[in-house]
Amino acid sequence: MVKNGEIICVYSDLCEFELENAPEKVKEHFLNLDKSQTEFAEITEEINELAQEYVKEKVVGETSIDD
User: b/e map of 19-39 (b: 16 or more CB within 10 Å)?
Assistant: First the structure.
């Protein structure tokens, strides 16, 4: 869907960290995406607070905090 231009791949530094241990096929797929198909999202204090609120309100579980 990303390569077809239907959606944009939004990623953060956490995604980049997780890719370090990913299979080569996964790394290559991500690295071969055109820059117009990706968007970097900086993790801010506001985002961290929102994530904590989601957990508190049971929108997501504690194990999903990084998602």
Answer: eeeeeeeeeeeeeeeeeebee
